[in-house]
């Protein structure tokens, strides 16, 4: 199979592959778990639905991320798909320098025996890790949802190295 040659096609090639990926709009989620006695979490923009039966998501985590090893050790985790109004929470989890601001009890359910769960968002799911695939610099986590809830709202989307809301939600069938 021949590779696409942007220069031969008269197009300017992107500076890096990360520039290409930055222009792929995607929903964002906070993935959280316990690491011993401490809650841990990170923002992911690589989340996608994998199957309905069984109910599964997949997402990618950079191996250097502070939460990566905790996710490998703890099979139970929470996935919170974020709404347009959750931008500030997303920014807390996107930056390691804001880690001390995460998991405020008024925004998070921190119950013993359950993964930390964000009180906001469009959807929340209690999950367990079903499989982890090593892909070089990242791990692909395949998780199965055991319990989930949905609240209609406009989504928060990652695009071009920023976050933006997508307006008002459409009512299915309406």
From TrEMBL:
The Flavin reductase like domain covers which part of the protein? 21-165
Q: Name one Pfam family in it.
A: Flavin_Reduct
Q: Name the InterPro entries for this protein.
A: Flavin_Rdtase-like_dom (IPR002563), NADH-dep_flavin_reductase (IPR050268), Split_barrel_FMN-bd (IPR012349)
- Source organism superkingdom: Bacteria
Keyword Oxidoreductase annotated: yes
Keywords recorded for this protein, A-Z: Oxidoreductase
Q: Does the keyword Ubl conjugation apply?
A: no
Family according to the record: Belongs to the non-flavoprotein flavin reductase family.
PANTHER family for the chain = FLAVIN REDUCTASE, FLAVIN-DEPENDENT MONOOXYGENASE, REDUCTASE SUBUNIT HSAB
- Name of the protein in its database record: Flavin reductase
Q: Which organism is it from?
A: Caulobacter hibisci
